[in-house]
Amino acid sequence: MTAENLAAAAFRLREVGVLAALGVAVLFFTVRATNFLTVDNWQDIAKDVAIVVVVGIGETMVILTRNIDLSVASIVGLSAFVTADTLAAHNGAPLVLVALLAMGVGVLLGLVNGLLVTVGRVPAIIATLATLAIYRGLAFQVTNGEAISAFRLPDSFLNIAASKPAGVPTLAWIALGVALVGAAILRWAPWARDFYAIGSNPDAARVAGIHTGRRIVMAFAMCGALSGLGGFMWASRYPTVDAVSATDFELDVITAVVIGGVNVFGGSGSVLGVVLGAVLVATIQNGFTLLHLSEFWKLFFNGFAIVVAVAINALVTHRVQDALRRRRRAQVLAARHIEAEV
Amino acid sequence: MKRVLLMAGRLLARWETLLVIAIIGVGIWSTTLSPFFLLRANLLDLLTPYAFIGLMAFGLAFVVIAGEIDISVASILAVSVVCFSQLYDKGLNVWLALVAGLVVATMLGCINGVLVGIFDLPSLAITLGTLAAYQGLAYVILPGEGVAAFPEGVTKFGGGYVDNELPIALLVLVAFAIALGFVLHATRFGRYLYTIGSNREAARFAGIPVARVRVTVFAISGFMAGVAGIVYLGYFGSARADAAQGSLLDVVTAVVLGGIDIFGGSGSMLGVFLALVLVAELRNGMQLANIAGDTQNIVIGVLLLTAIVVGNVTRAIQARGLPSGLRRKGVIATATVTAGLGTEPEPQELKGR
Amino acid sequence: MSRKRLGLLGLALCIALTAALVAGLTASAGRASQETAAQKKNYKMFLIPKLIGVNVFTENGKGAKEAAKELGDTVIYNGPTEAVAAKQVPFINTASQQGADAIIISANDPNAVAPALKRAVARGAKVVSYDGDVARDARTIFVSPPSAQAIGAFQVEWVGSQIGYKGEIAILSATPTAANQNTWIKFMKAALKKPKYRNMKLVKIAYGNDNPTDSAKETQALLQGYPNLKGIISPTTVGVAAAAQVLQQEGKCKSIALTGLGLPNEMRKYIKAGCAKKVGLWNERDFGYLAAYVAHYVLDGTLTGKIGQTFKAGRLGKRTVVVSDGNRPVVVLGDPLVFTKANVDKFNF
Question: Which of A2, A237, B323, C293 could form a disulfide with A161 if both were Cys (CB 3.0 to 4.6 A apart)?
Fold first, then answer.
């Protein structure tokens, strides 16, 4: 087995693991909870998953480069408000334009994050912790402490969260689209492939000629854009938007991403993983609700899942690295043997 | 004469001096906002609402100096507070309950420490997870409904006054600042922290029990969160699971603004104390100016960022003079960004996935 | 000099500086208190709602300011952005620091704000609570909307009449610690014991924290967790609006009856769509107006919290201080208003 195959196998192991966990969860809840396997229930799950997936793909891009973005929830909140505000003032505005506006807001905020990390040399954790507060404060300034009530929004917009073409909620269709585009980008766009390189070994990436600064800014900008889209979707699902909308949402996103196998050290992760991770998290939380468990167990579960996922990830990474190291040593020794004989 | 000037110059250029100047500056601004600012009662009371933040910051400073980070402190405070209140509510003697709360807090810190120190997991990701897990635990232990009405003996730590003027919380804060400052600057343990923060591998080779120290430092962080919880209880008069939620920004700002290098290896307790005073004064002033809490957060957030950028710039200048060296800094900066995520990972051979 | 010594020197310097500063200012404390004693008729009152950004509280503020204008006082309206008691504390402290004569507060938790209020009282302020009461020893008078018993009983009847007095119901409340919510829920439970409602079962009390997103999520959780749910009572304007929105989004307006306390402007669309056929409230602006008047009369000594004292609350007429459960002095606003499809257009708040 070559080094690539070994790496690919380890990676597939991650996703298979999540899939297996998902299977177990579904079985468990089907047996224990009433109403789990109904169409109605899964349509609900799909709506929650949709927003997490969209923002999660953005977050993944940042984490791939060995950074993190804690401010996504504030970006979602701010763009949700911009969406609601625009639509409340202009009921007839074309929805696509408003969505682009939301994404634009997100890109700007994401750019600030990226510049802080690259030009300002501020560690991502601190930078985005600060911008989490700053953007949330901006949301407050913009909302002026008032909420936009749902009844002021056009029905066409509210319909996005309500409609279910072909039985699948519109929000889920949007997420599916984003997932396909995101996966394609991460697979084939050269600048996106650079994310993996930067995350695996930033120094080597730089030496190899990759503009790490520019790529990192790009990653944060993409994350911002997707968070902006997430905000648009959020406003449709929870249409009474105020300054505190989407608070703590970053935890849901990061849980889904980490469970989905994205390595917090950067360098590995996939869109499929994020989707599976989001579905697993939403499924378990839904199951908790159906079992009438206190909703606070959900929060505990999120945290616990992150710790477990990180630990497993580290374990797998170490095993694979050890294996690769052993293989490399064997290769070197073999080469020396050949030299000696020759 | 020259020596005096040189020393004075070095004193002036110290981070702590900058903080003192800033504190005086903000003080002047505050007096323009309200004639009530300069009252003795008000000045003494300045730190009282932020005493619990300061205590958490002291503990966090230890962790950051050692090269790690702990963002779960606020959640540990919450668990500690609800544990105490539930035990007290169920009839346990108040002092025993208090001790139990502290023990729980320390244990939660230990869990962080073991995961990071022994299993070598990245502290950022782990404490992000425990932040959520512990917070969820707090809600499970005390869902929603707060517990109030604690005996004077307990609430005096956070809300009591000597002679109706000197806040006991202030005394607690200063006492811990001095005690922890002593540990940090005058004991072997403190020196270990600086060494590990500067270069973990070198520390290991030097014979320092790195794993043990790292576990201990997280335990200290947890313990201080527990102490902060007691003061919190005294000041707010009730125990709720969402205690201290949203305080993480101020805690991290106090640490970073206090001159503690976020990459580990340097900083002083005095700096953290002064930074706390500055944050408290700033927030108090903004509150007097009727600036909303969320807007205040913008100011604090910007302050946090400024502190780091300024720190980076001064470090760059100290390391290799001015502009021409900045380009090569890229290599150092990326490596240090790595350090910011917790541990120095082994060189990875997995690429492209 | 070693680094350690320098650090200790710096610490000592700071402490010395602070001590000098503080000692030198001892005089000013006396001066300031002398000023406040000699006053005054233009009272400075701070209105601290549970949270800002919610229409009912904004209306309270407007009403209070209207009363202040009539009385020659000033009302400053400010509060936290989340319904969290700990976040009201800095506002209480600032009010006290700025020399407040009166603090009018609707508290998120009766006990959590009590220490801060008592500190403010020790520094010369008077406290009047309204809507969300505080610990009895931390305020002079409580201003109540319609009697708690009436509010509880009415809402049970409003939902019962829509579901044929049979089936599972749930309550979507605000924060678990708000005194008014808990009192209303207490009276709702008492009402449910009546034989008329014996076929109705309360299956869950959910908490939306006066936050639209949380309330929406809680409603969704109710729908998921209790498939046989027939009715929802939401005694909070944020909750009832969020629940109505969710029911409409999920297409469940016909199968689940929603009622509660709602603002006519916010609920109009849902009332007409049939998602919430009947909701009630009171005039929030009058509520704030009344609270400000009460505060004024407490400050000038007319009202001391004694049962039976009367006063004239501007355009609302003569009011009396009565007793509420627990022997607390209370001033009551009046009976609730009911909004239905037939009359909702007549109201504008």
Answer: A237
